Amino acid sequence: MSQPAELQRAPVTGKIDVVIVGAGFGGMYMLHRLRGLGMSAIVFDVATGVGGTWYWNRYPGARCDVESMQYSYSFDEGIQQDWQWSEVFAGQPEILRYANFVADRLDLRRDMRFETRVTGAEFDEATNRWTVRTDRGDVLSAGFCVMATGCLSAARMPDFPGIDSFRGKIYHTGHWPHEGVDFTGLRVGVVGTGSSAIQSIPVIADQAAHITVFQRTPNFSIPSRNRPMTEDYARSFKDVYPARRAEARMTRNGILANPNDQSAIETPEADRLAVYEQRWESGGTTFMAAFNDLIFNKASNDTAAEFVRSKIRAMVKDPAKAELLAPTSHPIGTKRICVDTDYYLTFNRPNVDLVDISDTPIEAVTPLGLRVGGQEYAFDAIVFATGFDAMTGALTRMGIVGRDGMTLADKWAPGARTYLGLMTAGFPNMFMITGPGSPSVLSNMIVSIEQHVDWIADCLGHLRDRGLDCIEATLDAENAWVDHGNEVAHTTLYPSAASWYMGANIPGKPRVFMPYIGGVGAYRLKCDEIAANGYEGFALSGADKVAAAAE
Ligand code: NAP
C-alpha cells in the first residue's frame, strides 16, 4: 500500500553512530547530548511529534502528579528560566507544549523521523554493530542503540470476548484520539480505577449523561490541591534552581518532599493524625513522606491507610459506595498512589454509578455494552483505563535480537534482568533509559531520565576516547544486581501488592518487582562509582580486538 503524500520520505540507510528509539523526554535529551559529543544520531518514533507519554495520554483530566517546577528538564539553565508553567501540576496539553518548546529551542526535529515504528534490531557480533529496521524501509547500521521507549507506553487492552462486537465507541486512556472526545449526553462505561481513571472520571462525569465505573481494585488517592502558578512560587525555584535540582537528585524519589524522619507507629496518635492532616491538606504524592517507615512497616502503613479510608468515608455520602471505594487489599503506596481532583466527591453525583467487579469479572463486551454477572450494562462509549504492559512491553515487542540469536523477549520471558537498568547481558551496545532494574517509575521520571542520559553519554565519550567500540553488561554483574534489587524490594511492603510494578496486571507475566527501590540518590552514587571504576561489571572491548578475534 502506498503512503499518503505527507508521510512519504526516502528511507534512511547507511551507517550512524547511534539510533535512539522514542522521542519523549528521554530520546530528546539523549539526542541533544550526542550532538554535544559530535556523534551522529537519529530518533525514530511512531508518533507525529515529540512528547512520548504526553503525546499519547490525552484523556480528559490527564495531568502530571509531580509538580511542574520539578517535572521539567534541569540540564539547561536558559530553558528552565524561560519556560513559564501556568499551574503547579501542569496538564497534558501544557506539558506537550513544553516538550515542543524544548524541541524548537534545541532544533531537535531535524534528526527525528516520526510516524515510524522500529520493527527490528539485530546485533552483529562480527562488527559490533546493530542493524535497525523500521516499517518505513529504513535500514541503519548503528554503533549503539538507545531505547528511550518509556516505561508506560505499551497500552494494555484486556482481551474480553466480543470486544469487536460493540456498536458504540471504544477508547483506551493511553491512546486517546487527538481530536478529543465529546461525551455530552452519552452513557459511558469506564473500566479501571488506576491513575488514568481517577483523573478522567471526574471530567467525564461532568460531561456525560451517565457514567458507570467498573472497579476491580480500589486505589488510594490523595487530593492534588492543584492551583495556578504564582510568580512567587515560580521564583522560589528559579532563583535557586541549580541548588534545588541538585537536592532533588539525591532524594529517595527525585522529588523534594520534605520527608519526615520519624516512625509513624512510634509517634503518639494525636501527633500522627496532625501530620497526616497537614500532608492531606498540602496534597500530592508526598503524602507518603509523612513518616519514614510507611513502606517498610505494616503497622505504620496501616495508620496511613486508615487515615485515607476515613477521608473517603467522610467524602462519599453513600456508605456502601464509600466502603467499596476504600482500599483494603494492599498497603497504601504499594500500588502507585494516585493524585486527584474531586475523584471521591464525583461518586456523590446522581449520574455516577460504581460496579464492584472484584468477585464477578467482566464476562464480555456485547453489542450494547458490558456484561457482568449475567447483567448487561448499555453504553454509547466505553473507556478502558486498563493500563500498560509496564516497563518491558515496549522493549520485548520490538524484535530485538542480541548475541547468538537470542531475542530480548525470550531472555526476559522469566522476568526482566538487567545491570543497573541500563544494559542487559547478551545485548552489547544497547542502552535503556529508565529500564527495569532502575528507580524509573518509583521516581520523578525526568530526574531519572537525565541521570541515565548523562551516564550513557559520558560512557559513549569514554569508549570513543579510548578507541573502544563495544560495551556489554557481564552476566555476573547482572545477576548480582538482580539479586540486590530483589533483596531491597523485599525489605519493603511493595511485593505484597498485585501491582503493575510486579507485572501482576498482565495475565501470564512473571511476578517480579521491576523497578529498583533503593532510592534515586543512592542509585546515582552507585552508577557514578561504577563509571569511575572503569565501568565495573561491564566488559569493554575495542575494534582491534574484534578484528584479531576474527582472524
Ligand atoms: P493502572 O494503574 O494499571 O490501572 C489500570 C486499572 O484497570 C486498574 O484499576 C486495574 O484493576 C484495571 N483493570 C486492568 N485490567 C482489567 C480487567 N481485565 N478487568 C477489570 N479491570 C481491569 O493504569 P493507569 O491508570 O493507566 O496508570 C498506569 C501508571 O501510569 C500509573 O500508575 C502511573 O505511574 C502512570 N500515570 C501517571 C499519571 C500522573 O502522573 N498523574 C496519570 C496516569 C498514569 P486492578 O488494579 O485490579 O489490576
Name the features.
single chain, 8-stranded mixed beta sheet, 17% strand, 551 residues, 2 domains, disordered C terminus, 20 strands, 5-stranded parallel beta sheet, 32% helix, binds NADP nicotinamide-adenine-dinucleotide phosphate, alpha/beta, 17 helices, FAD/NAD(P)-binding domain
Characterise the protein shown here.
It is a single chain. The chain has 17 helices and 20 strands. The protein has 551 residues and is of the alpha/beta class. The protein has 2 domains: 303 residues, 3-Layer(bba) Sandwich (FAD/NAD(P)-binding domain), CATH 3.50.50; 222 residues, no CATH class. The C terminus is likely disordered. The protein binds NADP nicotinamide-adenine-dinucleotide phosphate. NADP nicotinamide-adenine-dinucleotide phosphate binds next to helix 5.
CA-atom Rg in angstroms:
24 Å
Mean pLDDT: 96
In CATH, the topology of the largest domain is named FAD/NAD(P)-binding domain
Q: Domain count, please report it.
A: 2
Shape: globular
CATH class category name of the largest domain: Alpha Beta
Biggest sheet character = 8 strands, mixed
List the helices and strands and how they pair.
Elements: E1 13-21, H1 25-36, E2 41-44, H2 53-56, H3 77-82, H4 92-105, E3 112-113, E4 118-124, E5 129-134, E6 139-147, E7 169-172, E8 187-191, H5 195-207, E9 210-215, E10 221-223, H6 231-238, H7 241-249, H8 269-282, H9 298-315, H10 319-325, E11 338-340, H11 343-346, E12 352-356, E13 362-365, E14 369-372, E15 375-378, E16 381-384, H12 393-396, E17 400-401, H13 408-411, E18 430-432, H14 445-465, E19 468-473, H15 475-489, H16 520-532, E20 538-542, H17 543-550
Parallel strand pairs: 1-2, 1-6, 2-3, 4-17, 6-18, 7-16, 8-9, 8-16, 9-12, 10-11
Antiparallel strand pairs: 4-5, 5-6, 13-14, 14-15, 19-20
